Amino acid sequence: MVKIESSGLMAEPLADLDPYAEDRLPEESMESFHFTPGDTPMLMSIPHGGTALPGDLAGRLTPEAQRLPDTDWHLERLYDFVPTLGIAILRAEFSRYAIDLNRAPDGSALYPGARNSELVPVTTFANEPIYRKGPAPDAREIARRREQFWKPYHARLAGSLEEIKRRHGHAVLFDCHSIRSAVPRFFDGRLPDFNLGTADGSSCDGSLRDRLAGSLAGFDTYSLAVDGRFKGGYITRHYGAPKDGIHAFQLELSYATYMEDDPPFTFRDDLAERVRPALKSMLETALEWGPNKRAAR
Question: Which of 23, 42, 184, 277 could disulfide-link 172, Cβ–Cβ 3.0 to 4.6 Å?
């Protein structure tokens, strides 16, 4: 297994960036994901932050794809305050080029009729080939990757939500993402800074959606879209079940709010310091919300 840094060079697994590691509950580390328990009704999922590549996959990728340009870079570093809030964290270890954990297991399109990326991608967001000359992954290889990477992540995700719901009476799932500010394959022009997705209001209670949007809108130096081009991926849509006490939302954050938009995708401390208050406010709003509090208003 190899792991790739934002410089595009292969390296050993990156060091844990969590400054509060000693204060956290015992952690579970597995080959395909890393899970840190929390003590609140909230779970943070980071399905596209992984940079590990299994087996010989790195050698099969084009030089451009080996840089993993479609990674949701530096999210743990950006959200370094999350452990202090008591939020459980589930993050993928492997790159989305191995398999996309935010797509349906049967590969069905998220946005029918629009341009979509695949369960096992064969092109980058820039429409460049991921694989060198030779066959792309066939059905058998896709099935193997689904068993090895997709299913364990989702088993832990589903189990964690059920445990949180059992302990707290409800669960809130935050699916955490980021993307380049301009990706012509998927959208025209420049993406808003904050892209809140709730599957058009079906993945969480309407009052939670309104409060999250209100929290983000309060930081008016940033642009905001609610259920725009990014309405929430498979994780948000599949697990969000407000009538069953599980409320899910996604934030697709523009790279430009915290890092360089282009390779080598350098983290910008100055930008991160400016945007963190908005992100923290959003998560504190989700933690303060609850079905009982809503009913009491």
Answer: 42
Instruction: Please give the Cα distance from 178 to 181 (Å, whole number).
Output: 9
* Integer angstrom CA distances of residue 6 from 39, 144, 293: 32, 27, 42
Does 294 score more than 80 pLDDT?
A: no
Quickly list H helices, the chain.
57-60, 75-78, 82-85, 139-145, 151-168, 206-217, 234-239, 269-288, 291-296
In terms of C-beta density within 10 A (0-12 exposed, 13-18 middle, 19 or more buried), how is residue 103 classed? buried
What's the mean pLDDT in 212-226?
98
Q: Which residue has the tokens 């599949």?
A: 238
Q: DSSP label at 191?
A: P
Cα 72 from Cα 49, distance rounded (Å)? 5
> Which pLDDT belongs to residue 14?
30
Domain boundaries, the chain: 2-296
Structure-block tokens of residue 52 = 């590990």
Q: What is the pLDDT of residues 178-214, one digit of tens each?
A: 999 999 888 889 999 999 999 999 999 999 999 999 9
Q: Strand, helix or coil at 248?
A: strand
Does position 290 have pLDDT exceeding 90, yes or no?
A: no
- The domain made up of 2-296 has a fold known as Aminopeptidase (3.40.630)
Among the residue ranges 60-74, 75-89, 282-296, the one predicted with the least confidence is: 282-296
On whether the CB atoms of residues 155 and 100 are closer than 8 A, the answer is no
Confidence category of residue 295, pLDDT binned at 50, 70, 90: very low
